[in-house]
Specification:
Blueprint lengths: L10 E4 L11 E3 L8 E4 L2 H15 L14 H17 L9 H9 L18 H15 L1 H34 L8 E6 L9 E2 L3 E4 L9 H11 L5 H14 L6 H22 L6 H4 L8 H16 L5 H9 L11
Parallel strand pairs: 3-4, 4-6
Antiparallel strand pairs: 1-2, 5-6
Helix pairs in contact: 1-2, 1-4, 2-4, 5-6, 5-8, 6-8, 7-8, 7-11, 8-10, 10-11
Length: 332
Amino acid sequence: MRSLFCVATLLVATTSCTPLTARDAPIIAPPAHRVAFEFHSAFLMNLHAFLLDASIRKRALSSYIWVATPSDTDSKTLTDAIAFYRANYAERDLLLDDTMASIKRTLSVDDNRRDASRLNLPPALTPVLNGVSQIYAHCLWPAQDESNRDWIRQVQVLNAKYGADVQASIEYYLDHPFQQTQIRVDLVVATGSRNGGYTDTQTILPSGQSSYQGLAALEMLYHEATHIEVADTVINVIDAELKAAHRSGDELWHAVQFYTVGEMVKDVLKRKGSLDYQTYADKNGVYTRGDWSIYHAAIDAEWRPYLHGEVTMQQAIRRIVNKLPAASSSGE
């Protein structure tokens, strides 16, 4: 059973209005504990992500940043490795496919390890990784590792300055605490996912993706962390309302999560840093994709009053759900 977090523990006083908060809304107390991120720039994880990204996006090798030019033989070895990934892994879901999840967990070893031998990997994968390891180490890794470390330094500064307020706001409005154990965050230049970052109990983030740079790094760090149980309360309420109202909205919970985390980061940056910030979803057209345009219109109309303290979560979600189309009756 998923644990729930009582928002009443965060109510300590009332204050004047802020960019999101209604005039008599409560001050949000600092979090009871700070969520801790354990950042990694791991060689084998990045080699895997490079081959996966190249196989999925069918990128030319010349489009990557090389610190040394590979020989013709090395280029052929890399091309063959990418073809192996395209044949075996490019069509798999990074989160839902057991093989991909197992590979990711297995590669979460010593960041400096470069030998894939004696790991619990698919037998055919080990020689592929070992066959290109030295080429990658010499020609690509120094630049990719530096990209990862630059991103980590950047987000650590932002998190130290604004993270506690962002965390407290997310916990308050999503009605669930962040976990007390550390969250492992692996940085790779490109994740292999067309959507950028992804999370199960471990987060993978793309240091080389332009949309994840600057202030957006803070939002996307917390967005991904929110996938680990923090969105559970909202998911449960939405699922119950969709079922009761016979409405369709499979991705509604994710749109609400995107909206909430983005607005919390935007609000904190404005209040604490006098910084104007456009949320990731707004800047990158997330709400224009598929049913998300319908979700966004309903969320903007009915969830924002909740963020202003004007209605309860239950009331806001019920009103959102009632604006969605009826569920399909096929198969009933």
